[in-house]
Structures are given as structure tokens and as C-alpha cells.
Amino acid sequence: MKVLLAATNRESSPYPVAPLGALWVVAAARAAGHEVVFLDLGMERNPQRALQQALVAEPFGAVAFGIRNLDNCWSFAPRSYFDDVRELAETVRHHFEGPLILGGSGFSVAPHGWMQRLQPDAGVIGEGERAFPEVLNRLEAGRSLDRIDGVVTSAGGDGMNATPAGAIESLAQLPMPAHESCRYRRYTRRGGFVGVQTKRGCPFKCAYCIYPKLEGRRYRLRPPEAVVEEIETVAVRSKLRDFFFVDSVFNDPRSHALAICRELRRRRVPVRWLAFCNPTGFDAELAHAMKEGGCAGVEFGLDVASDKMLAALDKPFGQKETRIAMQAAHDAGLPMAVYLLFGGPGETWADVEDTQSFLTSCPEANAVFATIGIRVYEGTPMARIAVQEGQVKPDQDLFEPAYYLSPGLAEDTENKLDRIARRRAEWTSPADWRKTVVRWGQKVSVLLNVRPQWKHIRGYGEHMRRRLP
């Protein structure tokens, strides 16, 4: 079957993200014998027009949308992406009479909301590499789409009780993502990267996180040789060097991350890359292996750093592990950024200051990004807490952005966080991100191809940002 698969994500802050999930599915559908025309709407000036032109240019048996995110997860400037996708769906309905299929992580976190609002013919929940080709097989044969693992249909329900597709046990059996179908230079010129996934699954139990829902709680690892082969293939074929390991946590399992770094070094692949990490198992050996393997910077998703809040969010590490990790990155010469998410259960301004005091006692990060307000997703511990405390109604539709904020931080929230952030040159707060001078600074970093973009935030803060009123 000939199908048009459109990647719908258009978010460009802090940089545009190439559609890796959709490229996995494109490759799987092609390997199954289907003709897939890939349309990346992420960098199109007029996405409706681009979609319309694709629809009228040639006949298709089906149209599919890859939806990366439901919203931007920023409580201080919330933005839902639903209207963007709704307009695209209306374009499809106006110019195409065949089935519309939805999928992607943004669909999978709230399938009921998408099915109810857009009434697509089918939706793929969870991993789509098997489910999507089976949907196409049945459409081509004129068969019902009922009872496909991980697929919900307009005829069979609205997604309320649907479950994700069963996990693909051996990722090694999947074809390499269809990187050749993505015009990566449109992304890299604006600060983006080529995304690479080394595994799926997350065993951690952070109170707010939806990764276990999307990928399962057990790691499924890709062979390190296959990961590096993918990077080398893209780097050589496309002459690209900027990559990002998009795993929820790159450094766990530690042995797997080490093997990938050593393979990159052994092959001398001429790339520079970043990765999301947490302090679990992040030590001197791993930090040096990352540096030798081409790592240009590490992004630590701590969220909090006080003992009280580490326990409240059920983080898998403590202050000891955090100090070891930051020291290891510093000693290896790895630039590092720290991401903080304040507002968890019981948190007070004293806890925020404790976090700042602790991080100040560690080797300095290049950047600390402090935000506040925790997005509440269906089925997470945070959702239960929010209901118990009356911040979310028991029957509230969490398709619409909803945020949890500790009552102890509810007064003059943004200004107080900003005043605390201003004490340290490397810290930034949502108030900073609205400033024109900060946005221009980001554009200059992109023009100069500074990687990572946050590498010089501390120096910038010392000389400019802290002087602003």
C-alpha cells in the first residue's frame, strides 16, 4: 500500500527536533513491503499547504500522522499542540477520502483524547514498527482493523481502555531508521541534531514520568555495534557530525553506555554528541569514556537535589551520586547542564534554596535550567497525588495541560524563583527565557554553531544577565 506519513511536530524551542520516532516507523513499513512517502512538516513555513500539495500530487491508500508531543510541558507558558494537528486533520479530510491513522508518543500518552476529538480511523498506541505495517496490510486487503495489538479504531472505541502495543523484544530485528528521508541540515542549521536511540524502556519510578508507560519498565538494548554503525552511516553519507542520544537515560545500564562509547572511539567516528543522563552509575570511568567517544556535553536531569524532594519524587539517586557524577564530568572535561523541576509534593522555598546550596557545593555546571510546575499525566503517581490534594479533579480530562504545584510555592512563584536563580551566574529561570536579549543570545549561539548551546551560559550570566533589572 502507498501511504503518506507526516511528522507533525513543529516546536522549535530551544531548537527543532528531528522526527526520529516517525523515521523508525517509516523504515519498518518499507521493510514490510509498503511504499511510504515521508512528509516532515517540522520545518515547513506553511504546513497545511505542504500537506495539501502532497495529497493532490499522487494517490495514497492511507494517511498517517506521527505526533511527537501533546503539549510543551511548561506551566509558565503552556501550549497545547492539538490545534496544529486538528488543522492538519481538516486538510486531510478536505483533500483525501481514505483512512487517517494517528500514532507517536504524543498520541500514546492520551489516545482517548485524540480519538474523541479528531475521530481518526485508527490510532497506534506505543511502538508502531509492528502495529502500523499490520494496519496497512489489513487496509490493503480490505480487512477489519479490529484486534490488532496496540491499535484502537473509530469503530471499536475511543481509546479509553486501549493498551499499548506489546514491546518489541529484540530491537536488533528492526531496520535502521529511515534517516535518508530526513533533511537533517534544516535542523542542524538551527541548533538541532540527528537523534539516535540506544535502547527502550525505563525501570525507574519517578513520580511524574510517562516513559515507563510508553516504553515499558524493562530495558531492551540495541547492540552497541548496531548503534555505532547507524551513527557512522549517517555521518559518512550525509556529512553530519552533531548527534543526540535521545534515551530517557543514556548512562543506564552503565555497561551498555560504556560499550557504545568504546565502540565510537575504536572506530574513530568523527562526531560530537550529547546525551541525557542521571547520576546513577555515572563515574570517572564512564565520563572519560564518553569524552573519548566524542561526547560534547552531558545533560543531567536531576529535577531536584535536596534529600527531601529526591524522596518525594522517588528519584533513583541521592546527593552522594549527584556529587560523584558532577565531579566525574568536571574532571573529564565534559560540559554539563543541570535541569531542575520544582513544585513537587511538599516542596517549599527552603527546599529550593537547599537545592541551590547543594549544587553550589558541587563542581560548577555550565548551565542550570530551573523551571517550576509538574505536568500531570494519566496513570502516573503524580496524577494520584494531584487528585488526593484537590489540584486535579478525579474525572479531569488530562488531555488539556494540567500542572501540579506545591502549595508552599504558590505565592509569587515566578518572581521568587527568579530571585533565587539570580544568585548564581549559571542559573536561568523562566523569567530569563522571555527576555529579548536571551533569545538573541540563543540565535547567536546557533549561528556560531556552538555545541552545546548552553556551554557559555555561566559566562553570559556573569557579564550580562545578572545586571538586568
Question: What does it look like?
Answer:
There is one protein chain. By secondary structure, the chain is an alpha/beta fold. It folds into two domains: 152 residues, Rossmann fold (3-Layer(aba) Sandwich); 275 residues, Alpha-Beta Horseshoe (pyruvate-formate lyase- activating enzyme). It contains 19 helices and 17 strands. The strands form four sheets. A seven-stranded parallel beta sheet has the order 7-10-11-12-13-14-17. A six-stranded mixed beta sheet has the order 2-1-3-4-5-6, with helices on both faces. The chain has a two-stranded antiparallel sheet with strand order 8-9. Strand 11, helix 11 and strand 12 form a beta-alpha-beta unit. Helix 2 packs parallel to helix 3, helix 10 runs parallel beside helix 11 and helix 14 runs parallel beside helix 16. The longest helix has 15 residues. The model has no long low-confidence stretch (mean pLDDT 94).
